[in-house]
Amino acid sequence: RSWTYRSYKLPWGHGVAPAPPALVLNGRERAIHYSQSGQSGIARWRILAGPSNPPTELRLGEHAKTQFEHMAQVPHIKVLQKMAGDVDLGKCCYLQVVPIDTQGNELTPSKPLFVDISN
């Protein structure tokens, strides 16, 4: 056996997540919580909504990644429908988050989350 008191610096690689981003709904707060474990290089998050699975009809927002876990309020159906324009959301829709890397490329999105937005 050999022992040493020295430590060695090695190049830092980019982590690739073993699974898509986690996305959960907190119904009491009307909020979604999302994060990506194991993925490095995320610069921004994009939040999508729509009646299709996966949702592509409506971009709710995009923001810089500033912490490990983020939270966003889910707008009321009247607000969502106004944002959607001609797209009829009905009483339910899908939500999805997409991490964006530093070059602006979309990484693996979360699984779509089915949400009742009628309340």
Explain how this protein is built:
This protein has 119 residues and is mainly β. The protein has a single domain, classed as Immunoglobulins (Immunoglobulin-like, Sandwich), CATH 2.60.40.10. It is 7% helix and 38% strand. It has 1 helix and 7 strands; from the N terminus they run E-E-E-E-E-H-E-E. The strands form 2 sheets. It has a 4-stranded antiparallel β-sheet with strand order 4-3-6-7. The protein has a 3-stranded antiparallel β-sheet with strand order 1-2-5, with no helix packed on it. The longest helix is centred in the C-terminal third of the chain and has 8 residues. The protein starts with 21 loop residues before the first strand and ends with a strand.
Topology:
Layout: E1 22-26, E2 31-35, E3 42-50, E4 58-64, E5 69-73, H1 77-84, E6 92-101, E7 113-116
Antiparallel strand pairs: 1-2, 2-5, 3-4, 3-6, 6-7
H-E order: EEEEEHEE
Low-confidence stretches: none
Shape call: elongated
Helix content: under 10%
Quickly give the structural class.
Answer: mainly beta
Strand content: 35-45%
Mean pLDDT: 84
CATH architecture: Sandwich
Q: Kindly report how far apart the N and C termini lie.
A: 66 Å
Cross-sheet strand order for the largest sheet: 4-3-6-7
Largest sheet: 4 strands, antiparallel
Tally the helices: 1
* Structural domains: how many: 1
Gyration radius, rounded: 18 Å
**What's the β-strand tally?**
7
Q: At the first level of CATH, what is the class?
A: Mainly Beta
What would CATH call the homologous superfamily? Immunoglobulins
For this structure, the CATH topology is Immunoglobulin-like
